[in-house]
Backbone:
């Protein structure tokens, strides 16, 4: 008796797409009318598939090329030794450069670097500004100091 009950409970699945004798009926065989899921060999599409329309990843504009790194990199303000020759005062710092008008107040928080561009004959003390090796040598040759 138990064997009969077990056979009744476990029903064999209907084989879709195998004709009228399969128990599911013929023609559309339970897949609806038309469309991707009704076709033979239906495979679940990738997650970004949008039903054949242009995917979002291809619709939005791209930043192309290698020259777009300028948006990411922090810009430096380069000052030459000839700019420091025009500077009035003894101590060069970002604050004193702003007061003298060599840099704007907006660019004060950007990195400032002194490069060896021209000649320096003044004795200056530089505080909190990066310098190149040749500019450092020229400043020390003129009798100046560089403080971190």
Residues:
């Amino acid at each position: 008796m138990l064997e009969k009950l077990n056979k009744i409970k476990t029903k064999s699945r209907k084989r879709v797409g195998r004709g009228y004798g399969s128990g599911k009926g013929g023609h559309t065989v339970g897949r609806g009318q038309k469309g991707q899921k009704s076709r033979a060999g239906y495979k679940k599409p990738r997650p970004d598939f949008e039903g054949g329309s242009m995917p979002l990843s291809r619709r939005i504009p791209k930043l192309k090329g290698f020259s777009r790194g300028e948006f990411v990199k922090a810009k430096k303000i380069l000052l030459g030794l000839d700019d420091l020759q025009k500077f009035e005062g003894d101590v060069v710092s970002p604050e004193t450069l702003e007061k003298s008008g060599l840099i704007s107040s907006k660019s004060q928080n950007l990195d400032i670097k002194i490069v060896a561009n021209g000649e320096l004959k003044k004795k200056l003390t530089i505080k909190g500004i990066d310098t190149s090796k040749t500019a450092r040598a020229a400043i020390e040759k003129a009798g100046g100091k560089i403080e971190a």
Q: What stands out?
A: DSSP finds five helices and six strands in the chain.
